[in-house]
Automatic annotation (TrEMBL):
Organism: Shewanella litorisediminis
Pfam families, sorted: DUF1285_N
Listed name of the protein: DUF1285 domain-containing protein
Domain named DUF1285: residues: 36-91
Region (Disordered): 1-20
Gene3D superfamilies given in the database record: duf1285 like domain, duf1285 protein
Xref: InterPro entries: DUF1285_beta_roll_sf, DUF1285_N
C-alpha cells in the first residue's frame, strides 16, 4: 500500500487499547491513510464522568455524541479523525462512561452518559481492581460509573438477570 506523505497508517498492531474490534470495519480502516494532526495540543477533553469539553468549556451532549462517532485510538491516546484532519482528545480515564445496563441472555445493552447504547458480550467486560473496563465497538473502551458498577457487582454476586 502506498503511504501518503504526512499521513500515518493505522494498523491492528497500533491499537493501544486492546479492545474488541469489528473485523470488517477495522480492515477498512487499515486501508485509510490518517491525515495530519491539526494541533499537537488536545482541543477536546473527556473527564472521568464521560463529559466532553472543548478548550475548557462544556460541550453540549448533541455535539459530544456526534464527535464520539469519529473518536479513534491514536498513538497511545485518542483523536477525532476525519478525512482531512485529526484532533487530539485528552481522556481522563476512558472515552465512554457507562451509566446503565440491561442484561439480555448472554449479552448486555449498555447506555453511556451521552445516551449512546452499545451491545456487548459479557466476556467484553473485565472487572479489575481499578474498576470495570469494557471493550466496545469501533475500538473504544469504556468504564462503569460507580452506581452502575454496584448494580453490575450485584448481578455477578447474586446471579440476578
Amino acid at each position: 500500500m502506498k503511504q501518503v506523505p504526512g499521513h500515518q497508517l493505522l494498523s491492528a498492531e497500533s491499537n493501544p487499547q486492546g479492545g474488541a474490534a469489528d473485523t470488517d470495519a477495522f480492515a477498512a480502516m487499515e486501508k485509510l491513510a490518517l491525515p495530519p494532526l491539526c494541533s499537537e495540543q488536545p482541543l477536546f477533553d473527556i473527564d472521568e464522568g464521560g463529559r466532553w469539553y472543548y478548550q475548557g468549556e462544556p460541550l453540549p451532549d448533541k455535539f459530544a455524541r456526534l464527535f464520539m462517532g469519529i473518536l479513534r485510538p491514536y498513538d497511545g491516546g485518542w483523536a477525532l479523525v476525519t478525512p482531512v484532519e485529526r484532533v487530539k482528545v485528552a481522556v481522563a480515564r476512558t472515552p465512554v462512561v457507562i451509566v446503565d445496563f440491561e442484561p439480555r441472555a448472554d449479552r448486555l445493552l449498555l447506555t453511556c452518559v451521552l445516551g449512546i447504547e452499545y451491545w456487548v458480550a459479557r466476556t467484553d467486560i473485565a472487572p479489575m481492581e481499578e474498576g470495570v473496563f469494557i471493550s466496545l465497538p469501533e475500538l473504544k473502551t469504556g468504564s462503569m460509573s460507580r452506581a452502575c458498577f454496584y448494580r453490575y457487582a450485584e448481578l455477578l454476586l447474586c446471579g440476578k438477570d
